[in-house]
Each structure stands twice: as structure tokens, then as C-alpha cells.
Automatic annotation (TrEMBL):
The chain crosses the membrane at residues 422-442. It comes from the Bacteria. Residues 9-358 form the FAD-binding domain. The keyword Iron-sulfur does not apply. It comes from Lysobacter firmicutimachus. The lineage of its organism: Bacteria, Pseudomonadati, Pseudomonadota, Gammaproteobacteria, Lysobacterales. This is NAD(P)/FAD-dependent oxidoreductase. InterPro entries: FAD-bd, FAD/NAD-bd_sf. Pfam families: FAD_binding_3. Its cofactor is FAD.
Length: 445
């Protein structure tokens, strides 16, 4: 379709994960939607170089996919991950289940496959029109026009209202905030990432435990891997951008092999194409962004990474972007005649919690690189799981609340702090009681 959005239709800038889901959700409520995506249609095979990049889908994302009626189609595309397999430097492994029972699992899904499925369903809906290779250039808030670049030509759209779902490097956000007293904060991690692929065995079986997230925790750099349905795994290496043993200093085949000899010797036999893959896969950067406001008047609103990009260490970027879509739909439903009020209510309901998520995601960076192999961390995890088993209604580990419930992120963190206080209180009370009993015994003797 090439007709631009008309006054009675909504324009969504960005047909990624959040944009395509929201297009469907709005269409299901009877709203006409035009989606403008910068890239070519990912379903025609030209877009990605056949690489599979996968993400962990958890409760919040599942909830949003359930609301649009797609979860039964998404689940068969996933591989269940029932816990983490920790790979120690000596090659030994240890399994840490995610929760106390089999219900608390994550689902690994190929991001392109999920995006294609969402676009397919959006396209099949008579209310949705998809416009690929349309890059947003400019927004004129006074005339309420969007300007796109399409094949060297300018396309002008005059939609009823606009959603910015154009990701961490959103163009909608700065255009929307031009001339406003807006806040914007961005922060790059000194570490970057590179994806490598671990092929299946010739018979299609997986070379490492299939139904788990694998972690190779090292203080200086670490791997996380998600499984694919064909028995392969997508490995993501997180490493400093600069300095010794960094992406910058690891370029030649000798340097690549030396890095793996030093930190990940057990991966060398599993990655026969390591040197070629290293050179051909780009090094990515990791960014956290925070901004306010998330909307302008009753005309533009932001969702997903466009208003809160987080580091990927809690596996919540997509999940929270999907949760935004549900929250925006709920706010529009609650304020049917006042879109501006809906946008404000949506931001008030979400922003404090996505701010918390940004902090949690930073904290999990330390956990993944270091703590998962420490004695204290493991002891803490065991206490968490044991308390959860003994007091299933009172004690919920923070990870459980984030990944396996839809409790707002800030509420989950506050509850986790309360729980900790109670347990620390109980531990010190027990210690005091023991001390008192000891003193009494000494006196009695
Ligand atoms: P995107 O998916 O980035 O979509 C934005 C879309 O907008 C893109 O299609 C882009 O082409 C388009 N666009 C951009 N600019 C323009 C423009 N000017 N005009 C038109 N279109 C435009 N999340 C999880 O939940 N679980 C995980 O396990 C997980 N792992 C991750 C691992 C890594 C290494 C990274 C980097 C991220 C990970 N994430 C994970 C985060 C997740 O990928 C993002 O949070 C999610 O993709 C955000 O969705 P979005 O729709 O907001 O943005």
C-alpha cells in the first residue's frame, strides 16, 4: 500500500516488535492503522543475512500476546528454557532452575520469526496498511504532518495521531520533543556485544543442553546463549569495547584464538567457524535511555525502546515494550474521549516502572558477569528458592516477580526490599536469641 495515512487513521512509526503488535491491537479495536517501517519487508528474505537473533519471552510479553489472541501461534515457535546452565572456566557445568517448579520457565524465540508473524497478522487485518522502506524524517507538530523518505521521494502523511515505535535510536522522540522542556538521558555501556552461532550436530541434536539458557560467566567478558528449534544456539559475547582483551584488541585470527584460549577454552571445539563468524558479525553497542515526556498533546505518543531502551541483562526489553502496548491500549480504553488524558495516564502508569527496569538491568550486568559463580550468590539463590517453597505466597524472589508475573517493576523491587528486611530481621532476631541463651547458660553454669 502506498497511500499515506489519512486524518482518520493512526500512523505507527516503526514496524518492529512493539509497532507490529500495537498495529494489531489497535486494528482489533476498529482503528485504522498505517505502519511505516524504514527497512524492507523482513518477510521477503532480503532483510537479514539469515542470522537468527533470539530473545527470552517471559510473562509480560506472553500476556500482551495473549491479549491480541496470538499466543497459541507464538508458543510453537519457542524453545523452553527451564533454567541457567553455568559453564565454569574448567569446563564443568551446573544447572540453576529458574523457579521452584516447572511453571517458571522462559521461552527462547527468534526475533525475526516473531516480527514476521506479527506483521503477517497485522497485514491480514483489513484495518492495517504496512508501508516498508519508509523512513521518518521530520515531524511538523504545527501542521500535524509526518514526512517520510521513500525511495528518494518524500511522502507526507496527515494521520489522526502518531505512535513512535521506532526503537532505541528513535527519530520520532527528538522530533516530538523539539521546542519542549523535555528530558533525555542516554548512557552507553563500556561493553559491547557480538553474536556467534553454535551449530547443531549433524543429526540435528543440540551440542549442549537444549532447553536452557547457558551462561559462561567471567569477570572480563561473558557469553549468554539462547536455544533455537533446529538444535542450534545463538551465543552472545559481552566484552569491553576497548582495552586489553576487548573487541578493539581482538581482530586477527591469533588474537581471537588467544581470547578464547584464555577465557572460554571449552567453547573452541564447539565453534569451528569462530574466526570467520567473528569477522562477519558486527559488534553492537548497548544503550540505556530515559526520557520525559512520552507524549505531545493528544497527537504523538512513544512506546518500547523509543522511550526506554535498557541493557539486555534482565531479558525484559521486548517484554516491557509489549507491556507498554497493553498499557497504552488500557489507557485509551479508560479515556475514550480524551486522548491527551489517556497518554498522560499511560506515561504515569509506566515510566516509574521502566525507570526501575533500567536500574535492574544494569544491576543484572554485574550478576551475569560475576556473581552467578560466587558462593554467596548461589547461597542467596538457594535461600530465595527455599523460602519461596516454604512461603509461596509471602516470599517471591525478585527474578520471579520480574520474569514470571505482571507486577509493575517498581512494585516488585519494593516488595523484594521489604522481604529482605523481614528476613534480615528474622536472622538477627534468631542470632540475638541464640546469643541471649548462650549468656544465660554461662551465668547458670
Ligand atoms: P525495535 O524492535 O528496535 O523496532 C524499531 C523499528 O523501528 C525497527 O524495525 C526499525 O527499523 C524501525 N525504525 C527505526 N527508525 C525508523 C525511522 N526513522 N522510520 C521508520 N522506521 C524506523 N528483550 C527481551 O525481552 N528479552 C531478551 O532476551 C532480549 N535480549 C536482547 C539482547 C540484545 C543483545 C539486545 C540488543 C536486545 C535484547 N532485548 C531483549 C531487547 C529487545 O530487542 C528490544 O527491547 C525490543 O526489540 C524493542 O522493541 P521496539 O519495537 O521498541 O524496537
Amino acid at each position: 500500500h502506498s497511500q499515506p495515512a489519512a486524518r482518520d487513521r493512526v500512523a505507527i512509526v516503526g514496524g518492529g516488535l512493539a509497532g507490529s503488535l500495537l498495529a494489531l491491537a489497535l486494528a482489533q479495536r476498529g482503528v485504522g492503522v498505517d505502519v511505516y517501517e524504514r527497512r524492507p519487508d523482513p518477510r521477503d528474505g532480503r532483510a537479514e543475512g539469515g542470522r537468527s537473533i533470539n530473545l527470552g519471552l517471559s510473562k509480560r510479553g506472553i500476556q500482551a500476546l495473549t491479549e491480541v489472541g496470538l499466543i497459541d501461534e507464538v508458543m510453537p515457535l519457542t524453545v523452553t528454557m527451564s533454567g541457567r546452565v553455568i559453564h565454569a572456566p574448567d569446563g564443568s557445568t551446573r544447572f540453576q532452575p529458574y523457579g521452584k517448579d516447572g511453571g517458571e520457565v522462559l521461552h527462547s524465540i527468534d526475533r525475526n520469526e516473531l516480527n514476521r508473524l506479527l506483521l503477517d497478522h497485522a497485514q491480514r487485518h483489513p484495518q492495517v496498511r504496512l508501508h516498508f522502506e519508509h523512513r521518518l524524517n521530520r515531524i511538523d507538530k504545527a501542521t500535524r504532518e509526518l514526512e517520510f523518505e521513500h525511495g528518494g521521494a518524500r511522502v507526507i502523511a496527515r494521520p489522526a495521531w502518531v505512535v513512535g515505535a521506532d526503537g532505541a535510536f528513535s527519530r520520532t522522540r527528538p522530533q516530538m520533543q523539539r521546542g519542549e522542556r523535555a528530558d533525555y538521558h542516554q548512557e552507553y555501556l563500556e561493553w559491547g556485544y557480538k553474536e556467534l552461532s553454535l551449530s547443531p550436530k549433524p543429526d540435528g541434536g543440540s551440542r549442549i543442553e537444549l532447553e536452557a539458557l547457558h551462561v559462561w560467566p567471567r569477570v572480563h567478558g561473558f557469553f549468554v546463549s539462547h536455544p533455537n528449534r533446529d538444535g542450534s544456539h545463538t551465543l552472545t559475547l559481552f566484552l569491553p569495547h576497548q582495552g586489553p582483551d576487548s573487541f578493539d584488541s581482538t581482530r586477527t585470527p591469533e588474537q581471537i584464538r588467544a581470547l578464547f584460549d584464555k577465557y572460554f577454552p571449552d567453547l573452541i571445539p564447539l565453534l569451528p567457524n569462530l574466526v570467520e563468524d567473528w569477522a562477519s558479525h558486527p559488534t553492537g553497542s548497548l544503550i540505556t535511555t530515559r526520557t520525559a515526556p512520552w507524549s505531545a498533546d493528544d497527537w504523538i505518543v512513544l512506546v518500547g525502546d523509543a522511550c526506554h531502551a535498557v541493557y539486555p541483562f534482565y531479558g525484559q526489553g521486548m517484554n516491557s515494550a509489549f507491556e507498554d502496548c497493553s498499557a497504552l491500549m488500557a489507557a485509551l480504553h479508560a479515556h475514550p474521549r480524551d486522548r491527551r488524558a489517556a497518554f498522560i495516564a499511560y506515561e504515569a502508569a509506566r515510566r516509574p516502572h521502566t525507570d526501575t527496569l533500567a536500574e535492574l538491568s544494569k544491576a543484572n550486568f554485574v550478576e551475569l558477569k560475576q556473581k552467578v559463580q560466587s558462593f554467596w550468590f548461589l547461597a542467596r539463590k538457594r535461600i530465595d528458592v527455599t523460602l519461596n517453597r516454604l512461603l509461596p505466597r509471602t516470599w517471591l524472589p525478585l527474578y520471579t516477580m520480574i520474569a514470571h508475573t505482571t507486577m509493575p517493576y517498581g512494585d516488585a523491587l519494593a516488595r523484594s526490599r521489604r522481604q529482605e528486611k523481614i528476613v534480615l530481621g528474622a536472622v538477627s532476631a534468631t542470632a540475638l536469641a541464640a546469643f541471649g541463651a548462650g549468656a544465660w547458660l554461662l551465668r547458670a553454669l
